[in-house]
Amino acid sequence: MRLRLKGGRVLDPANGENGVATGSARDIEILDGRIVAPTDQRADAEYDVGGDVVMAGGIDLHSHIAGGKMNLARLLMQEDRRAYPEMPGNFCGCGGGRAVPTAHATGCRYAELGYTTVFEPAMVGSNARGAHLEMADIPNLDTGAYLVLGNDDFFQRLLAAGAGQEQVNAYVGWMIEATQAFAIKIVNPGGINAFKFNARKMDLDEANPHYGTTPRKVLTTLIRAVTELGLPHPIHLHGCNLGVPGNDETTLATIAAAEGRRLHLTHLQFHSYGTEGDKRFSSSAARIAELVNANPNISVDVGQVMFGQTVTASADYMSQYRNRGIASPKKSIGMDIELDAACGVVPFEYRDKSFVNALQWAIGLELFLLVEDPWRIFLTTDHPNGGPFTTYPHLIRLLMDRDFRNAQLATLNKAAQAHTMLSQITREYSLEEIAILTRAAPARILGLKDKGHLGAGAVADIAVHTEDADREAMFSKARFVFKNGRLIVKDGVVVELAQGTTHVARPAFDRGIETEMDRWFDAAVGLKAKHFRVADGELRNGAGPTILKCEGVAP
Amino acid sequence: MAEASTQTIHDVVCGFCGLGCDDLTVEVEGRAVRVRGEACPEAVRLFTRLDVDDRPVSVAGDPASLDEAIEAARRILSEARAPLIGGLGTDMAGAGALVDLAVRFGGVLDHYASDGLFRNYAAAQRTGWLAATLAEVRNRCDVLLVVGEDPSAIWGRLFERFFPADPLFAGKPRKVVFLGGAPGEKAKVQLGGADVSHIATSDPVAVLEALGGFTAGRVPPGTSFGGVAVEALAALADKLRTAHYAVVTWNAATLDDGDLVAERATALVDTLNVTTRAGVFPLGGRDNLIGVNQLMLWRLGYPLRTAVRGQQSVHDGALYATQAALGDADVLVWVSAFRPEPPPEFAGKLIALAHPETVFEREPDVLIPVGTPGVDHAGTVFRMDSIVSLPLGALRVATLPSVAEAVRRIAEG
């Protein structure tokens, strides 16, 4: 099957091509789902894109789309589902919702925005099978999941016992394989575990009440593990003290703790709070962005806050429990999970007239605009925690259009306006930078060599957007989206459902750990290790995973 | 010869009651299946298979081919005004196929054992709750409050799973308080190492409410609540307050005021967590109830008791409960692959995708006997805590279709 997209302005930063800047248009050719060098052979179908912007399909490296916490959120927030019923059309008979859309709606709404790959950033090992079942029901998207580690009692015991790095590496490798994960996520390193022993907060160098381990030790040990296992994506870290005023110090200390090794700080907005001002809540975005700029080993995603009703869902039960008093509506779910991790689900409404919420909004935008290297910062709302992913077009306009941004700022809580430097920041993102943030850079940091670009050999995941000075309008509906070379969106409407794949990483590890894992699961967990393991055939309705070999990257 | 062909399979996963035991030993001889060694009576009963011919497929009581039955089922559903897809005793693949069936033909979806679940949701959806999973209870729980009747009758190995010999964190002796019925012999044996006590009451709601007050430091007016003296309640409150990790468990399905018990237990655990750690562990989950409900949530955004019509779904926990929905239904699709659960009384058309040993009061309009997940074919089920799911294996060569296979063929045409 040969397809041709004719006359598009190709925006492909990974390959240094910017047809928008040069004004030159060219064809893109697809053969059997992959991009090939242009030929003059007859195509089975041709699409005249008439100068529209052609980019690789969007990649979201941090969006909560599957796993038990999302179902708890759906259960808790039936209001969200009722307020957003199924959209009309042949392909949307299965669900709705906005903050926690159904699997089907997640696949459809992301595809309409031009996204084709999304990673679930917090899969709990004991819930991995369920998360994979749920991901298999998301159409039109390739997925993958980061395994939450660091708060599990097996790991804490290893640390407390002074186990060697080799043994830790074997355990991490075994867990990645057993749960069909793609990367390692640490959530509140050690804090979730400490909460089970009734600790209510956890600083970087605070000792776990039972094990005596510190978050710093958890972090540095797991950074070494993923480096030595050759995992392409660095540790994906949700740091200590999420949402706590003054957590900027923790974040700065955490960057230093990486000691030059690669580290990804997720939803940095929630970790950039100072204590200045009469409300004891201030922006530390400038301080933190400065350190990010100075440390090329650090990458971040923002977790931008967007106003309106959402649901926060996190493995960070310690923080979520702390926040449950400000739930809106006033209800929440928490759960300690399987000597493994935990979760907390707290509905929340971000209000533009609230000082704190408005400043959170501004802090996120400050980070976006002050972190200089677009290859090290990623566009996220930490869906649904900072806001639903469907707000991305609005966020893109905020980044690209200073006048619009300042006009929005002028409508917010007055005190918050006085506490942000946002209005003085003149930077406006270019289309190329947006393409880097949402395509080229995530592919690179995830180690996906055949995604995020439009060179020969790439997977034919392609988004075509008609240029519009109103960037929100431009990015709200893709004109065409191709998934593996199949047209799935036309004029902003889903026209076909494609089954995606699930990316997993397969590091080599010392299989001597297996006996120990068998023993642990038998004695402590009360479940056989072999039943904990998720088989390849359990993914994607039997299709199995797409396996990424772990060859390592420069530290 | 017979002995030579007997195969012993270890570490078999049991998908029946929702507790998710995965250490059973099963013998398979031809088509016969039997449990060996330690297992609860429910597992022994439901795993046991004799080497007998399959029950025939039938249409209107007459033997028919599978193709004829599929065709007849499709015809009935095509003409249906208001189908109820009930029972839903099936694995995840079967549940997915049944949601597709509802999307195609319309229909209300409910599981036969969902009463307890929705009593719990009365609390969970209104205020939320703080919960624990099985491995957390096993290793952390030092004070367990069991509300209602001794659950060992339904979950034969519950206390064995809750209280292993060497928990990681809970000190000994672990304390167990039965609030309601007395512990039976089985529970006493399994709780041999624990400090077990019993507080009799026929009104656990009143007791839990008062207990919540005591735990929060309030002394409710009165000398007894639910027949329990305030001194005993104060002592119990003290036990819970000084626990490192208290757990409250109940089976809402067998409690008259299951919704109120869930609500009061949730409130109690909320109060406890202000100063110590605690969680609820609601019991339930037979025949993959939890898994089907999970799938409903991610597929439709609603739990069970949801109607799908004209590409839209609507949830109503009362209107679309099986008994209420039967009043409006003209077709019942009854699905029970785990056990011979008979369909409820119903005057309309009946399509049964049923365990071969099901006894029907009247012949279904279409009967397709189906294999059992974990016996005849592989599958996935969720444990009662809604987090852990388990792979079921096949113990023998399947001669009956799975629910997923049969339903997909009905929906295909």
Automatic annotation (TrEMBL), chain A:
It holds the Pfam family Amidohydro_3. InterPro entries: Amidohydro_3, Formylmethanofuran_DH_asu, Metal-dep_hydrolase_composite, Metal_Hydrolase, Metallo-dep_Hydrolases_sf. GO terms for molecular function: hydrolase activity, acting on carbon-nitrogen (but not peptide) bonds. It comes from the Bacteria. Residues 47-487 form the Amidohydrolase domain. Signal peptide: none annotated. PANTHER family: COLLAPSIN RESPONSE MEDIATOR PROTEIN, HYDRANTOINASE/DIHYDROPYRIMIDINASE FAMILY MEMBER. This is Formylmethanofuran dehydrogenase subunit A.
From TrEMBL, chain B:
It comes from the Bacteria. SUPFAM superfamilies: Formate dehydrogenase/DMSO reductase, domains 1-3. This is Formylmethanofuran dehydrogenase. It comes from Ancylobacter novellus (strain ATCC 8093 / DSM 506 / JCM 20403 / CCM 1077 / IAM 12100 / NBRC 12443 / NCIMB 10456).
